[in-house]
Structure formats: C-alpha cells, structure tokens
Batch of 2 targets.
Target 1
Amino acid sequence: MRMSLAQRVLLTWLFTLLFLIMLVLKLDEKAPWNWFLIFIPVWIFDTILLVMLIVKMAGRCKSGFDPRNGSQNMKKKVWYLVAMLLKLAFCLALCAKLQRFTTMKLAYVFIPLWALLLGAMVELGYNIFYVRRD
Amino acid sequence: MLFSLRELVQWLGFATFEIFLHGLALLAFSVLLVLKVDGAAAALSWWIVFVPFFAADGLSTYFTTIVSVRLFQDGEKRLAVLRLFWILTILSLKFVFEMLLCQKLVEHTRELWYGLIMSPVFILLQLLMIRACRVN
C-alpha cells in the first residue's frame, strides 16, 4: 500500500508544524520542558519512516520475490536507512548537548549531519550532472 | 525516502539544481556555525555565518529570473509568471526568516521574540500545504 503525495505531505506538514510550535514555546521560555520532549514530533516522525522503510526492505524476504528485479532498489533503501540513522544520531546528540548531558564539542554533534548532507549532495549531483548526460 | 526527487521538484517548484544549491548552503552554514560556536573562529560575526544562505537565495533568484525570461520568450507566459511569483514568495519568506534570526542572534533584543521570527516559516508551511493539494 502506497500513500498518496497529499497524505505524505500532510504527515510531514503536521509533524513539522508541531515541532516548530514546541520549539518556539521552548525558545521563548513559555515551556520549561526537557529538550528531548520538545523533539517528540521528530522522534515519532522518524519512527514512522524507519518502520515504513524496514517493512519495505523485509518485503524482499517474502517467498516468490525475484532478487534480480531489485538489487539497485535495495542499495537505495540501504542508503535511506543509513540516512535515517544518521539523522536520528544527529538529533539525539543535539538534544544531549542542549540539555547539557555532555560537554562534547558541537563539531562532534554535527558529524552525522555532515555525513548525511554529503551523501545527499552526491546523490543530487549524480541526478543533475550524470543522469541527464545519459 | 518519503518523497522521490521528481515529487519534491513538483511540490517545491524548485529545479533539482536549486535544491542542490540550498543543500550546499546548509552544509557551508553548519560548518561556519560550528566554527563560531566552538570558538575556532569566535570572531566571525553572525552575518558572516549566514552568508551561505544569503548567497544561495541570491543565486536562486538569479537562476529563477533567467528561467522565467526564457519561458516568457518561448511563449509560456502564464507558466513563467506563475513560477517567478511562487519562487520569489518562497525565497522572500526564507530571507525574512534568516534576517530576523540573524538580527536576534546579534542584538539579543527582547522585542524580537522567536514566535515573530518563525512567522515566515509558518506562512511558508501553509503555502506548501496548499501547493501540495494542487500538485496532487
């Protein structure tokens, strides 16, 4: 079952809006909550995406699946899984830093985000400069 | 992941190259932010930290203007005007948000509260939702 574009946009929009509202409340000192609580919409959204991705990947284990059809697709899904985990690692490290659970430098917090952005840039660059020339 | 690149281009109205440009700007901004906050380049002003975003906005505007002029010359007048109007709205909202945030970080004024700073982003979210319904 695949969600329509409007459903996926609605899902993203709802969680982004909730997160921004909570962020504003926290930054304006109207809500003295823990940073991990502020990030609840992000955790829920990431969990939904991870579950959807894992269910799709597990579809390969079904009987009657022809592995010759989806090797390229599988590589893409593995990259998406890594990207999700990198994003989750960044958010967790950022929360820990903001909550002063750790005194590590901000550079270490940003390493997963940089890895994610570099990967995304390579994929986008491939789509712009390589696929079109083909 | 949740959206394919084609869907993103349709939804946001930006070309793939523009999305690439804004991604690069985010990467450069995060590096400058870390340098500023970690103290490796504490003397950097907040305006300089935000330069990648301002540059990406400027380049995107330039790119959009050229594409719209070409579309206009090719007789696609309605498409050219609609594209120019949409992209300029998005970019101006983004620019206002960046300016307000930068000003807040520089001056720490109490009058400039975060709800006000975020208001362009909230407007942007509503516009993106409306556009998604149309694209769908």
Note: The interface with chain A takes residues 1-3, 5, 7, 11, 16-17, 19-20, 23-24, 26-27, 30-31, 33-34, 37-38, 113-115, 118, 121-122, 125, 128-129, 132-133, 135-136 of chain B (CB under 8 Å).
Target 2
Amino acid sequence: MPIVIVDGQEIEIGADERLNCIEAARRAGVEIPHYCWHPGLSVVASCRMCLIEAGQRDAETGNVSMIPKLVPGCQTPVKDGTVIVTESEKVRESRARVEEALLIDHPIDCPICDKAGECLLQDYHFEHGQAERRADIHPFTSRKRDVGPTVSLFVDRCIMCTRCVRFTREVSGTGELMVTSRGAKEEIDVFPGFPLDNKLAGNVVDLCPVGALGDKDFLYQQRVWFLKREANVCGGCSAGCSIYTEHNQDTVYRLKPRENPEVNTWWICDEGRYGWHHLHDDERLLTATRREGPAGHAGNGSPAAADETLEWADVVGRLQTDLQAAGSLAVAVSPMLTVEEAWMLCSVARSIDPEAFLALGHVPVAGDDETFPGGFTIRGEKCPNKRGVEAVLALFGSGGHSWNDLLAHVAAGKASAAWITAGYPKAWIDEATAATFTGLACLVVQDLFDSPLMAQATWRLPAVGFAERAGTWVNVAHHAQSFRQAIRPPAGVWPEGRLFWNMLGRRGLYDPVAIRQELAESAAPFAALAGEMPAIGVDLRVRQLA
Amino acid sequence: MQPFKPVLLEAVGVPDGNTLASYRSRGGYAPLERILREQQPADIIEMVKASKLRGRGGAGFQAGLKWSFLPKDHPGPIYLCVNADESEPGTFNNRILMEDDPHQVLEGTMISAFATRATTAYIYLRYEYPHAWNRLQAAIDECYAAGLLGKNIQGSQFSLDIYLHRGAAAYICGEETGLIESLEGKRAWPRIKPPFPAIEGVFRKPTVVNNVETMACVAQIARRGVDWFTSIGVPADPDNPRDPGSYGPKLYCLSGHVEKPGCYEAPLGITARELIDGFGGGVWKGRRAKAVIPGGISMGLMTEAELDTPLDFKGPGTVGCMGLGTAAVVVIDETVSIVDFLHNSCRFFAHESCGQCTPCREGTSWSLRMLERIRAGKGRLKDLDILLELGNTMGMMPGSTICGLADGAAWPIKNAITKFRNEFEDYIKRTNPEGWMVTDPVPALQIVGAH
C-alpha cells in the first residue's frame, strides 16, 4: 500500500486511490485550508490558500527531497513516498498573505452578512490570518446583484474562487454564471437576459465559501449559530438525497445537501431544497376527528354529522373498534411512510382483519427522470419510499398491489372499510377518484392537508411531513437510509408511527430503531438494515445476494 | 563590434518585400520544398535541436526540446500555435517581422508544423496589429494560391492549414495556456500545469506554442544551416552543463530615451551599452541613462552601471533582472522619477492581471494603490517594505501563482526598490514630511479605473 507522510505522520492510502494532498492530509486528520477546490468540481488551483510544501521520499535511501517552491495541495497528487508539510513557517506565511490579500477588497461586513458563523473567510482568518491590517482602509461598499429568482450576489464579498461558475458549467450544465472584467475589478455575473435559473441553482449558495451568494429563501431569516442540524433524507422524490434539516425551535429554516457518495454526492435540487415549506403551512390538518355514518355522508347532501374531535389516546382504541365493526378492510400504504411505519401499518391491518387487502398508496409522478451533465438526477417519481413499501407489502403476501388495484378492489365492493395513508405535500386526488370510497362503513384518511378524499372520511387523521418522521426510506436504487426526527410535529399531532405502535399494543415511546432491528432479523429482504446504520445508508440488496 | 548583416530583417526596406515573389527571390520557400521532398519530421526536430534555438517569446526554452515533448505516434491531431500576441511593453519585433516579411514567418511555421506533424496551425495575433493582420492574411492567401498551403503541399504527403486568429487585446493572452484558452473561445485564464500543452493543449490535443520570431529563426536555420546559426551568439558555458547557450541573431527593440529607437538585429550577447550607443545613437539629448529595462517591463531594471551586461539569455539574470525576456530594451533617462516609472509599471500589471490567482489579483492592485498614494504625497516608508514583500512573494517562482504574469509584475517592484531605494525614501520624506513614518493603516485613495 502506498504510504504518504503528512507532517511526519505516515498514513496508508489505497493502491488505486487518486488523492490530492488535501484529501490525503484529511486522512491524517490535518486540514489544509482551501477555497476554490471542491471534490465535485474541476481543479483550478487559483485561490492559493492550499499552498503547502511537498516532496518525495526516496524508497531506497529514505532521503526526502522537497520541491523548492510552494505547491497547491489541490493540484498535487500524492503517491507512495509523497511528503506533505502543512505547518512550516513558509506555509503559514503564505496562508497569512493570501488571507490578507482576500481581505483587501472585502467589505468585512460580517455583522450584516448572513454567512457569518459558517464563513470560511472568517474561519481561516481566525486560524491562519494576521491580526494587523496593513492594507489601506478601503471605503465600505456592499453592492447586491440579483443573479436569479432564488439567489442574490453580494458582489464585494466575493473572493473569486469560481466554484459557482464551475458548478453551472460542469454540474448543472447551464452555464449562467461567468466572470467579468479583469484583475481586482473582476466580478461574478450572469449574461444579460439569462438569470441563474436552473433546477440545481441553490447549490451555488452552498458552494460559496463566503457570503457572496445568498439564498433568498433563507436570507436574514435566522442566524446560523442558532440553527441545529439533523441528518435527514429528502422526501421530494425517489432519489432520496441525503440532507441536513437545519432548524430552530421546531421550525425548519433551510435544507442543505449532506455528502453521500452513494446517493446525491454533494448536491440537491431546488425542488427538494425549498420543499419544506408545507411543513409550516397554516392549512395543515392538526386534529384527529371522527364522524358518524358511512363515508361521503356529508358530501351526499345529507345533514353533516358533527365532527367529534378526539384525543390521540382515544383514537387508538376507537379506531380499532370502528374498523373491526366495519368488516373487510382495504389499506393503502403510502410511499411517504417509512419502512417501519409501513410494516407496523400492515401488521395492524392484518390483526384487525386477517384478510385485509394491502396495497401501495398513490405514487405521485411528475414528468420523467432528469439527469444533468454532472450526473445528478431528479426523479419523476415524487415519493421517497416506493421500494421500501413494496418490499414490506411483499412480506405480507401483497407484493405488486398498486393504488389502482386498491381502487378496483373497493369499486368492486370487496371492502367495507378503507384506511388510506397519504401524507403528500401537494394535492393528489380528484373528486371522481375520491367518490370510489363513498358509502364505505368506515373510511380512515391520514393526510397533511384537506382533500376531496378527506372530505369523505369518517376518520380524519393528520399526517406528518418528512422532517417530523423517523425511520428508513428505500430509494429508487434500493439504497436504504435511516434518519431521526428533526423537528417535532405541530402540537397535538402524532406521527403515523406512534399511532401504529400504540395500536400494536406496544409499550413505551415509539422506537423506530427497535422496529428496524426486528424487521432486519425476521425478514430476509431487510437483513441489511440490521445493527447501526451508516450515515450514508446501505444497499438493501447487498446481503440478499450474499 | 563586428558589422552584422541583418538576416531576420532582410526584407525591411525592400520594396514589396512582404510579397511571395520578393520572398522567393531571397531564397525563401526553397528550403521548405527541399524538406518536403527529402526529409522526415524527425530530421527537422534534430536540426532545430542541433541549432540550440531558444524560444524568442521570453522564457528562452529550447524549441527543439519543446517539440520533442509531443507524444510519439499520437493518433489524433496535433496543433501548432504561433504566439503573435506581442503585448510586453516595449516589444515590437514580431510586428516588424509580420508586417515586413510575413512569408518568413509562414515558412518557419510550415517547417515547424511539418516537424511536429501538425496539420493545423493557428497564428494568435494581437488585436492592436491591424496592419500585421492584413499583411499576414494576404501572405496566407498567396500561399494557398501558390499551393504552399492546403492539402498535399507541393505533391507531398504533408497538408497544412494556417488560420489567423485575432485576439481581443489582453496581455494575458500571450501566456501560452492563456492563449490556448482564448483560442478555444474561453476567458484567457492560464491553465494549471501539468498537463503541459505538448500533452494537452488546444482543444485538449497536443500543442506546440512558439513565438513569431522563433518561427522566423526556424526558417533561417532551414535556409542557412545549423552551423551558420550556432556561429552567432554566445556559446554555452562549458562549466555549466545546464546552460544551453544563446545562439543566433536576435531582434532587439530599442525604445525610450534614445536618439534612434527601433528594432535592430544583432547577435545574441550584445551589451546594452553597445546597443544603445551603437544602434540607438546614445541616450537622447545628451543625457545619461538612469535605468534600462533589458527585455520588456516584466524583466526588471538595470542601472546605468550595469549596462555592460550582455543581453543574452543569461546576462540580465546576473544583475538581478528576471532574464532577457523579449529583448525589448527601454531606456529611461536621468530626468525620470523612478517612482513614476514604478507607478506606471504597477498600473500596467494591475490592469492586465487576469484575476485568477489571489496573490497576483490582489497584489498587483495593492501595489498600484500604494504607488498612487505615494505619488499623491501620502507615502510611508513602510509602504516600501510592503511593496518589497509583495515583490518577493508573488509569482510562479515562489509558487504563489499559476503563470508568470505575477513574476513580471514583481520584478520591476523588486528591482526598482532595491536598486533605487534612496530615491524612493527621499521622495516619500520630501512629499510626506508629516506622515512618512506612520505605520498604521491609512485611508485608501479612490482610484479611477484605467478602463
């Protein structure tokens, strides 16, 4: 195995690995500061912050010969015997000078800058800069430029790392951003009439190491040091991108991509990025209610029976009673549910009616998969866990049952009760489809918002959104990722899992990890979920093949 | 000084010297036709290697060696770029060659393309040279009409197209990878190396970039032979195996405060004083020289006492200059303030820095601001130390930038301050009697942009 020597510390790297000095040093726990380099973008070596001393140790004699000048760590590949020195006087002086140079034209307006607190310029200056300003005091300027519908550019804060420009050229392939002018007068800009408007545009804000690019959705909403982050998975489509949900006091403020080489690499799409606003929508259903009479009773022009608002503790028992009384049951297991929730729901359904008809819930689809030049794909299937629910259904002998099968089953009069889980962020069902369920003795609908189906329901139960759930989702490539709850649901709302847990008669607080372990032990298709889940998730098919 | 009959400048002053007929009458294109008939590309590379021709663009890299870095038996296209983006202040030898003897340049280009197996050559011409553009394009058209360009030239297996590409007036386009980027239609930000252009250049294909004068030299070597070429100039130092010597004639661009400015051809190794006094008729108005730029502003400054330095590839380096550069000798007479000189130099580089690497982008602009302030009577002695530190730390040589523009910006700063420090200190103390000793940061002056 090749050996690389980082500040005197020998580390081993893989024989086929192609690492640069920054990556190799990171393996040794040494951070080489850098602005322009990003693992997902081409190397330009222009910020010069990562300058280090490098050399080669002779395998025979053990003598080290160093390159006399400083070299950029991002551009210098390592091989067996590469020697990296990151803390010499020469390197430290060079970093201090680069920091000093970057601040000559920078407005240093941290108190009014949204990036303050997560700004590399701040961090590196604190660590590598010099306390004294030698350059002339520059008149304060803070020009703001609208570069697109979602992104603002604070021109004077820019340090010209060109990450954003390279992103639009290499990853989104849209090339809206460019560099204008020359020397110290150069600026990032868009071409006239071609704003930064693509489905991945928000990533440029994450890429920006300083406060130059601001996300209008997040700008001035919250200071970053108040935010807490929870590793989550995006529920926007079946890609299942790894994200961080950044929140404070049960309010989500923004979503950020979480690096996951198996799923989304470094990016997320704007649809997912801004796809959390429904969580805090005023229209959300917040109370569990029950209504006497058959489904659609109120919709049929008959006098509306009074809705009875129920405490959740009462829902558990009375729902069970109502469903048992209603007879043959049909259940739609929403692809928005986690694997654990789906499994518990199926178990509950079969305990109420051993012949219960189980089917995959409605799968929202919007267009085709869209792949970008950088390889990132937005899926047309707008739900996170179709594969997971299908696998659960197969365990219950109901594999392959689709939403349409369920509609046909109900339309044929084979069910007298239906339990429809939904939880979709957007309107998903029309009047005509909802009418299929009219007249059922008991219709349970669990959803985020009111809908034509909800209007028919005898049991109206609020659902929760992605950041309020915990469990496991399986994406389009059968890659399973487990996540915890990021924020609590609105007061008075039980997540689906908690309801199912209680309906199964389990004690204590709902524990998705316990369910996952049981599932992994008892069901071969889920064997890969056993034990601690890695942050990047696991491929569900791995252990099945083994 | 031996009388030297111009070779590269043979056509200067000849009526219609720029035409094909005139060039043929001087023996032109006969070497090309002979090479196409009788020789192989490897022979030409050997010939140029044997001539020890060093690139005339500024860096002085051996042309034959550069060609030999091309991958052997490369299946795809190989490109030849002729760097005619002559933008170094004080330099105009390429312009003379292209305007007065374009066929000499073209023949050299054709021979070089034959040697490097390139079937497409681009001449990247500086925007500000419309006359050169017309002359070159006319010459290319003549060559196509005469069957010297195009498919199967003179019945041989060799085909070549030459395209004239006009730049958009940026100094950085003269840097070989900046030129390549610009030629590809991109912003001329120099590329990181490796890969070097010989492996991955224009359109990511192996590419050779050579200067116009280098091409002219190739044409003359083919016509007059290696021995003729190596008989001129300064032989290699036998004690230094890494010294490739400085052979051949060189076009010196003499300008500034001399009686007879102009482009003069002389053997490499002529001293600055011989050039100024011999060709230039001495410093103008009977004055003394204060300083002389040896080869374009980015090479730094020689003082009057250093004028006996030979202007070969090695000489200027011995007196603290960066090198011979483009051999553009600019004379600055004793009446000029060195502060003004340095301000002008800094203004040029701040304007021309491409802005890619932080140390150069900010360093050139910072040095300009300091010089602006010094000239506005608000200089401090501390500024000299900062300027010197900038000069010593920015550039490809200390490793802080990608290309050599920053070295070029740094050298005049270093040389001016180390060689003329007294003048700077006197100036600052005289113009800022109250504040010359201040070390705290001071308010910046508003600078009006050059463009």
Note: Residues 358-378 of chain B form the longest helix (21 residues).
